[in-house]
Amino acid sequence: xxxxxxxxxxxxxxxxxxxxxxxxxxxxxxxxxxxxxxxxxxxxxxxxxxxxxxxxxxxxxxxxxxxxxxxxxxxxxxxxxxxxxxxxxxxxxxxxxxxxxxxxxxxxxxxxxxxxxxxxxxxxxxxxxxxxxxxxxxxxxxxxxxxxxxxxxxxxxxxxxxxxxxxxxxxxxxxxxxxxxxxxxxxxxxxxxxxxx
Length: 197
Ligand SMILES: NC(=O)c1ccc[n+]([C@@H]2O[C@H](COP(=O)([O-])OP(=O)(O)OC[C@H]3O[C@@H](n4cnc5c(N)ncnc54)[C@H](OP(=O)(O)O)[C@@H]3O)[C@@H](O)[C@H]2O)c1
Fold this sequence. Notes:
This protein has helices at 10-21, 37-43, 56-60, 94-101, 116-120, 138-150, 164-180; strands at 2-6, 25-29, 46-49, 69-72, 77-80, 83-86, 106-109, 130-135, 154-159. It has 197 residues and is an alpha/beta fold. It has a single domain (2-180), classed as 3-Layer(aba) Sandwich (Rossmann fold), CATH 3.40.50.720. The mean pLDDT is 96. The structure holds NADP nicotinamide-adenine-dinucleotide phosphate. The site of NADP nicotinamide-adenine-dinucleotide phosphate has 24 residues, from helix 1 and helix 3.
């Protein structure tokens, strides 16, 4: 599959390496580099936005993502009086805002819930780390679930795109544990169904 990643930072680089290792073709582009976001979007079967939340609007204005899955890795992080929080929530989400900017695309929220270090290397855990995904297009979600599996995650369907309202604060739970609770960045969420009832 041809995966076009916009954003060459920690998340974009980690995902590029993981998917290349799984045999996918990857193009990685950033700001002021070639290929740019618009070329990447034309080339790709799946587009990944691994950029700051604040950059989404300008990038969405330059790409044609019609009919394609668009993975939204961003977190709409903002500083408030109580420290780190979300710029949007409860009645919408960053992912729904992105979907409104790209009405013909199939936005899927995922890969926002753990640090880039875990995305780069999902091994060494007692079982596969979980990664929820949310979106309104079932075919796009199937594609994304398979790409999550290729990275070594256990993909769990969270439902329609409005469930990004749950997944964005969930990311802050990871960040809170990693930083404020001092658990570091080398941990992930796991789903543990009970074997015996
Ligand atoms: N880091 C994590 O562990 C983590 C985990 C989950 C989710 N996230 C989310 O993932 C996103 C990316 O995080 P990150 O840590 O990878 O950030 P990062 O290391 O700062 O990288 C961001 C990348 O986006 C590029 N960029 C910024 N504006 C752009 C634009 N208008 N067009 C194209 N590229 C642009 C930057 O380019 P320049 O180098 O030119 O500035 C940079 O390469 C954020 O929304 C973050 O909240 C991060």
